[in-house]
Amino acid sequence: IPCVPAERCVPPSSRDKEQEQGPPAAPAHGPWSLHDILGEEDEQDRVPLQKLKLLGESEELRDLLLNPHLRQLLLTIDQAEDKSSLMRRFMQEPLFVEFADCCLRIVEPPEKENILPE
């Protein structure tokens, strides 16, 4: 199967059809869309964009992110190749757990009937 640099490998007949139709539209936010990354089984784990925007509005989260140690932990995860094992390790770090809990409270607030009266 012939390959052209920077294009995916496809059988010649499929590639010819793609060239006739023109290149597919590029995703708005980079080379991958959420649909490319997440399969149907991941749908239930998806957080709506509207709720994700709440993260940027949270004073509590902003205060946590002022901590240089937390910022370094997040950079380490972002740059790691094996993110899953690193995440398991960092979930033992109280500061990281505080950060994760804060994010979860923002995007998935506890239901009022489950909160005990003070």
From TrEMBL:
Coiled coil: none annotated. InterPro entries: ZNHIT3_C (IPR048371). Residues 1-40 are annotated as: Disordered. Residues 50-107 form the Zinc finger HIT domain. This is ZNHI3 protein. It comes from Xiphorhynchus elegans (elegant woodcreeper). The gene is Znhit3.
